Amino acid sequence: xxxxxxxxxxxxxxxxxxxxxxxxxxxxxxxYRNSSLDYRLRKQRTIRxxxxxxxxxxxxxxxxxxxxxxxxxxxxxxxxxxxxxxxxLPNSNLVNSCKKIGRLVGTMHxxxxxxxxxxxxxxIISKENIFIIDFGLASRTLKSDDHAVDLRLFKEILNSAxxxxxxxxxxxFLSGYxxxxxxxxxxxxxxxxxxxESRGRYARxx
Length: 206
Ligand SMILES: Nc1ncnc2c1ncn2[C@@H]1O[C@H](COP(=O)(O)OP(=O)(O)O)[C@@H](O)[C@H]1O
Ligand SMILES: [Mg+2]
Known about the structure:
Largest sheet: 5 strands, antiparallel
Radius of gyration: 17 Å
Number of helices: 5
Bound molecules: adenosine-5'-diphosphate, magnesium ion
Strand order of the largest sheet: 1-2-3-5-4
Shape: globular
Structural class: alpha+beta
CATH superfamily of the largest domain: Transferase(Phosphotransferase) domain 1
CATH class of the largest domain: Mainly Alpha
Order of helices and strands: EEEHEEEHEEEEHHH
Number of strands: 10
Low-confidence stretches: none
C-alpha cells in the first residue's frame, strides 16, 4: 500500500478494492491529545465521514463510494476519484468551478448538511463532475449560523490560497449558492457571514 498523503486528520493510502482503485483514510492516534478523548474523536469522525459521505448522494452530490469501514481502527476504504483538486486548477477554471461549488454547497445546506471543512482541497474535478470529499467534520444542521461558518471558511481559503482571483471566485461562489438556496435564505446567511467577520475584526482590535 502506498502512502500518498500524511494529512492533519489522517494518512491517505492508495490501495485497491475488488480490483478497483481505492483510497484508505486512516485516522491515527494523536499523542498530544488525551487518549480516550483522542479515540472518541477519531471514531466519531470516521463514523460521520462514512455516513454523511453516503447521505449526500441521496440529493445528488457526487462523493466517493464507501467500500469498507473499520470503526475500531478508524479506517475507511473508499472509491478513488481520478481527477484534479480544485486547489490545483488554473485560475480561470478555478473561478468557473466556484459557481458550481456554490451551488453544491447550497444543495447540501438545504438538505441539512454543513460540511465543516470547505477548502479547495476538498473538491475534486473528475470529468464533468465535482466530487466533494473529507466529511469528517460534517454535521447535520439547518442552523443558519452553521451554514454561515461554512461560507466564512471557504471565503477565507479563497482569500489566502487564491488571493489573485479572490473577488471573482467569491462572487461566483455566492451566485451559485444563491441559485440553490433562494434569495431570502441567501440574505440571511450572508448577513451572518458579515456578523462573523465583524466579530473577528473587533476581536483583533481589542
Ligand atoms: N476518495 C479520494 N479520491 C481521490 N483522492 C482523495 C480521496 N480522498 C482523499 N484524497 C486525497 O487526499 C487528500 C486528503 O484527504 P482528505 O480526506 O481531504 O483528508 P484531510 O482531512 O487530511 O484533509 C485530498 O485533498 C485528496 O488529494
Ligand atoms: Mg481535506
